[in-house]
């Protein structure tokens, strides 16, 4: 906003594990997320791919607005 660009930026993290991940491992990562105040959300590989495509398009627009994109 300081530069006249109406944008919001969020940093996301992705944790990947096998479909049959043991419960103790799931509990460990859930505790890590809580410890650092990370919001937990589940997305299968297709939904996560769609999300990444959307984020990449947003980045392209933002980079273009600040003169760093095509």
Task: Choose one word for the global shape.
Answer: elongated
Q: Helix coverage percent of residues? A: 40-55%
Task: Classify the beta-strand content into a percent band.
Answer: under 5%
Tally of DSSP helical segments: 2
Q: Report low-confidence residues grouped into runs of 5 or more.
A: none
Integer average pLDDT: 86
Describe this structure in words.
- The chain is mainly alpha-helical.
- It has two helices and no strands.
- The protein has helices at 23-36, 45-65.
- The mean pLDDT is 86.
What labels would you give this structure?
mainly alpha, single chain, 0% strand, 70 residues
What order do the helices and strands come in, and which of them pair?
Blueprint: H1 23-36, H2 45-65
Summarize the structure in short:
The protein is mainly α. The chain has 2 helices and no strands.
């Amino acid at each position: 906003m300081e530069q006249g660009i109406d944008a919001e930026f969020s940093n996301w993290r992705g944790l990947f594990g096998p479909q049959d991940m043991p419960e103790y491992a799931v509990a460990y990562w859930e505790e890590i997320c809580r410890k650092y105040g990370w919001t937990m959300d589940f997305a299968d590989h297709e939904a996560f791919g769609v999300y990444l495509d959307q984020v990449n398009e947003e980045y392209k627009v933002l980079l273009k607005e600040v003169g760093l994109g095509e």
